[in-house]
Amino acid sequence: MLTRRTVLTVMGALGVIVAAPPIAFAQSAGAAPAFVKQTADQLVEIVNGPGTPQEKRPRLLKVIDSAVDVEGIARFCLGAFWQRATPEQQREYIELFHDVLLNNITGKLGDYRGVAFTMGRTTPRGETDAVNTLVTRPNAQPANVDWIVSNAASNPKVVDVVAEGTSLRLTQRSDYASYLHRNNNSVAALIEAMRHQVASFGSG
What we know:
alpha+beta, 5 strands, about 55% helix
């Protein structure tokens, strides 16, 4: 699916936070790890609390909008095509990217039972901090995952996730570019495909 790789990776990273025991953060220090811990506490409360996934969706939306720079990631993934899109296309694309992300998180939360991670070191990278984690889940090899967090003290955001050395937003931008090139560089075609993906959520 067009946006599945990136949104599932972002969702997977959030899913790791959801499933990780809160104590896993206990020895972490610094603004970026503290931000991750705060997000984790909020998500754990939602996921482990009562209600159906759809009933939890508005609360998940609030946390995701607070923790993840969804618009920034979406714009980055569209690359040079962002400037070619009309203002209306830009608006709808951002909304659809947001909806696809939230749909995948809502629909896949149960897949991360048993996942845990160990906090590693935090490495400054200019305007971001890379928070390293070792992710483990049943019947899978451990994976190194870096959370790239903007280091603005007043409003940090997750801006990328790097899994085993692969930047997820770079991968998705490459996928989008390939799709657009196969479809006459039509942003409208990409938007139509994303509309279909959003509309089909839960139908299968």
